[in-house]
Design goal:
The structure holds 2 protein chains of 2 kinds.
Chain A lengths: L4 H7 L2 E4 L5 E4 L2 E4 L5 H10 L9 E4 L16 H17 L2 E3 L9 H7 L8 E4 L13 E4 L2 H10 L1 E4 L3 E8 L8 H12 L7 E6 L1 H4 L3 H9 L8 E3 L4 H7 L8 H11 L12 E6 L6 E3 L7 E3 L14 H11 L14 E4 L1 H4 L2 H11 L9 E4 L4 H9 L2 H7 L25 E4 L14 E4 L2 H10 L11
Parallel strand pairs in A: 3-4, 3-6, 4-5, 6-7, 9-10, 9-12, 10-11, 15-16, 15-17, 17-18
Antiparallel strand pairs in A: 1-2, 2-8, 13-14
Chain B lengths: L7 E9 L6 H4 L19 H4 L21 E4 L11 H9 L3 E4 L4 H10 L2 E4 L2 H13 L4 E5 L4 E4 L4 E4 L4 H9 L3 H7 L1 H9 L4
Parallel strand pairs in B: 1-2, 2-3, 3-4
Antiparallel strand pairs in B: 1-5, 5-6, 6-7
Helix pairs in contact in B: 3-4
Classes of the chains: A alpha/beta, B alpha/beta.
The complex binds iron/sulfur cluster.
């Protein structure tokens, strides 16, 4: 029988099928962070349960951590309390714990791949919806709720109905200044934020084949923003070269065995998907969002759509534009930008900083712009230094902060003030996501860089030499 | 965590006819700092419900004394965004036991089922009817019958059936959760784990 990549990985992890119910799915690797895990650990305690396979769970602190002065005690008592809880829970249950100040600390979806926790063909979960990031390696990876975190801790399984299957094919060559982020925002703008709800997506075609692992992670990361549980890309040479020799990757004989398995991880030629979309990569422009969900995106040179051009709720569309302080039919280009944020598990990797630096090099940060540059991990931070990017950034008037989720969800002090406009490389432009009253425009690191140096929404293609 | 059993719920409802209500609106991230599951209802829809100075926003539906009940009727694509179970906790803690919408985001729906909030998905037409009925008379009652899997607009008798897996249905009716089930099959899981290919 012909199977999709998704079928192969899913079916091989089903412990039991429940009639009229979900599948019991075995989870290979589990990541936890300080915000969605404390109640799960408390649940274990209340039920008198233990962690079944502590070696399969990895803990890092990222969501509420400060991105400056990480050597000092965390000032906010509630955040400090959550961090302490993660530390003591990890210690009590024998789980690897990479807390603040630890060399391996960083955003969960950045450090997981960096240390080889993420492997092709694995099932990976975390109490964070952007766990879909790890699908870039041909893993089934998705976000779960706290009850499910508790399930994984105590039984290494969760119960899930098998999602339907969707494939998104993009062929053709991407144009100048068009990045993986633009590809993802383009797809979401076509499918809407609920277009892939109930599905697990496979991305296929030339555009993804030619992408680096960093780029693939950006694309898979954003799968959730069109409602999909997750997205995945079949592993190839690029994947294997990335995974090989990472700390938690299989070694020696185990690696040979793993490699043989990785090579089976592709969709059979005549396998059938429940839904399939095909787009032409050459038509994609640098993208930017104008509204309050990631589906409200457009090519940067276009105008904000008119009410009659959008499907569905007129009231919701109007509410959204009103929140943003924009009007239908207006151009996005030239809008004033107050803040620029580059970072998050979507665009906080080395390639993103290289892209950002390529534009700001030899230019200066616009005076009225506050820029937060937040690497996804210490490895990224080190690469930025080692590659000389830090000098370029400093020369242009930028400083680098310390790793963490930061303004992606603004749980720490990195909050965009009410009413201010931010061009952000993160993943959500929901009302107040980046701080109460904040107004977010999602875009690529190139668009963010162009905004940072000009102070306005600017087409980065005009700044690329 | 144990929750109250769900059988037949008859109640007036609170209408929130906005589309794409995401979990950042249901409970903003800055209220996720607790290490226990208590008090989340106070911050349900925090930024829609209160001004920055904590005074209630009169125009928001939860602040309108005309509307109350154990059922929340939401717009299309309810619960999109973050996986935070806190969103479902906040809804439960506030006093809702059932959320009705013409379309739910996946993770949110699963989270609700895991903690004892029943997500009831209905047709857009029926959702419109319910919204209109409540608008006309805020005291309009709905009956959500889990054993029969039906939802009825009591004023007119119009009803629709809804889907739920038989497994989840029996969990909800008995107040069980998945952990109870999984813990019981632990030996089978361990056996499975010892036979994993890599
Ligand atoms: S960067 Fe944002 S999306 Fe990514 S893990 Fe952190 S909070 Fe979640």
């Amino acid at each position: 029988m012909s199977n999709t990549l998704f079928d192969k990985v899913w079916d091989s992890h089903v412990v039991r099928k429940i009639e009229g119910g979900p599948d019991v799915l075995f989870i290979d690797r589990h990541m936890v962070h300080e915000v969605t895990s404390p109640v799960a650990f408390l649940g274990l305690k209340n039920r008198g349960l233990k962690v079944l396979y502590p070696e399969r769970t990895f803990a890092t602190a990222d969501h509420n951590t400060p991105t400056i002065n990480q050597h000092l005690p965390v000032a906010d008592p509630l955040s400090a309390n959550q961090l302490k809880a993660l530390e003591s829970n990890s210690k009590e249950h024998g789980i690897s714990y990479w807390g603040l100040g630890h060399q391996k600390n960083g955003i969960v979806h950045v450090v997981g791949p960096e240390y080889g926790i993420t492997q092709p063909g694995a099932t990976i979960v975390c109490g964070d919806s952007h766990t879909s990031t790890h699908g870039a390696f041909g893993a089934i990876a998705f976000g779960i709720g706290t009850s499910e975190v508790e399930m994984v801790l105590t039984t290494q399984c969760i119960m899930q109905p098998k999602p339907m299957k969707m494939r998104i094919n993009i062929n053709g060559k991407l144009g100048k200044g068009v990045t993986p982020k633009d590809v993802a925002l383009y797809i979401i703008s076509k499918l809407s934020t609920s277009g892939a709800t109930g599905y697990f997506v496979e991305y296929a075609g030339e555009v993804f084949e030619n992408m680096s692992m960093e780029g693939r992670m950006t694309v898979c990361n954003l799968s959730i923003e069109m409602g999909a549980r997750g997205g995945m890309i079949a592993p190839d040479e690029t994947t294997i070269n990335y995974v090989k020799d990472r700390e938690f990757s299989p070694k020696g004989e185990a690696w040979d065995k793993a490699l043989a398995y990785y090579k089976t991880l592709k969709t059979d030629v005549d396998a059938v998907f429940d839904k399939e979309y095909t787009f032409d990569g050459s038509t994609i422009e640098p993208m930017i969002t104008y509204g309050t969900n990631p589906g409200m995106g457009m090519g940067i040179s276009n105008a904000i759509p008119k009410v009659e051009e959008v499907e569905g709720g007129v009231a919701s569309f109007a509410k959204s534009l009103n929140y943003m302080g924009f009007r239908e039919g207006e151009a996005m280009m030239g809008k004033k930008v107050d803040y620029v944020f580059i970072g998050s598990c979507t665009n906080g990797r080395i390639e993103d900083f290289r892209a950002f630096a390529s534009i700001v090099k030899g230019r200066k940060k616009a005076d009225h712009v506050t820029a937060w540059l937040v690497p996804g991990s210490h490895i990224v931070e080190k690469q930025i230094r080692d590659e000389g990017l830090l000098d370029i950034l400093k020369e242009a008037g930028f400083t680098l902060r310390q790793p963490g989720c930061s303004a992606c969800l603004a749980m720490n002090d990195d909050k965009i003030p009410a009413g201010k406009y931010a061009v952000s490389t993160s993943n959500r432009n929901f009302e107040g996501r980046q701080g109460p009253g904040s107004r977010t425009m999602l875009a690529s690191p190139l668009v963010a860089a162009a905004a940072a140096v000009t102070g306005f929404v600017t087409d980065p293609r005009t700044l690329i030499q | 965590m144990a929750y109250d059993k769900f059988n037949i719920l008859r109640s007036s409802a609170v209408p929130l006819s906005i589309e794409n209500v995401d979990t950042d609106q249901i409970i903003p991230a800055r209220f996720l700092k607790a290490t226990e599951r208590v008090g989340f209802g106070d911050d349900l829809f925090r930024d829609w419900r209160y001004n920055p100075d904590n005074s209630p926003k009169a125009e928001f539906i939860l602040n309108n004394p005309l509307y109350s009940g154990k059922i929340l009727v939401g717009g299309k694509n309810f619960g999109s965004g973050s996986s935070r179970e806190h969103a479902a906790w906040a809804i439960y803690d506030y006093g809702f036991r059932c959320v009705v919408s013409s379309f739910f985001a996946d993770i949110f729906k699963g989270n609700c089922l895991n903690i004892g909030v029943l997500p009831v998905q209905i047709s857009p037409d029926f959702a419109d009817k319910i919204f209109r009925a409540i608008e006309t008379d805020p005291k309009t009652e709905l009956e959500v019958n889990l054993p029969n899997q039906t939802i009825t607009l009591l004023s007119t008798g119009e009803h629709e059936s809804f889907d739920i897996s038989s497994y989840k249905k029996s969990n909800m009716m008995n107040g069980f959760d998945d952990i109870d089930y999984l813990v019981n099959i632990k030996p089978e899981i361990q056996e499975f784990a010892s036979n994993l290919p890599i």
